[in-house]
Description:
It is a single chain. This protein is of the alpha+beta class. It has one domain. 20% of the residues lie in helices and 31% in strands. Strands 1, 2, 3, 4, 5, 6, 7 and 8 form an 8-stranded mixed β-sheet that branches. It is globular and about 50 Å long. Residues 6-11 have low confidence and may be disordered.
Amino acid sequence: MARKPGRTWTTTKEAKRNAPPPVKVARAREGADADAPTLHLIKLCVGVDDVQELADWQKKRRRQFKRRFNTHVTRSYPRRADELLAGGSLYWVIAGSVRVRQRIIGAIQRPDSDGVLCCELRLDPKLVETAPRAHRPFQGWRYLEARDAPPDLKPGRKARGDRLPPALVDELRSLGLL
């Protein structure tokens, strides 16, 4: 990759050492009000073909950075962060379907290496599979109301169509039948 003129390149350790303190820090509340309506985020999981691949990639990143949680950096800090941290999750769209979610445990607004503000979402490492629901591609993230979120699959239970050949599953999903 060619270096852009005027840009300073630093290593991850240098960036952490020289990084200014975060601007906003928000953490999930323990014992959030169970009756309160929950707000979620939905985001495309680009470059991942299935839930296991996402799980493996996140595990590798946790080990690499010696963390007990996952992070996802995005450009915009959610204005409704308090609602998200009251039990909200990040729903991942994988291969055209919402397939899995992760609980959001924190949101930190901080400058990136170029000084531009970004948001670091902190995610629970536990992936909860959901009933697959087709979703069209979009950029960035979107809010997802609790009533619109797909239900969780019971542990050990497979989604409809998981025993079918992948090509057939893709065709049935494109027709809206799965």
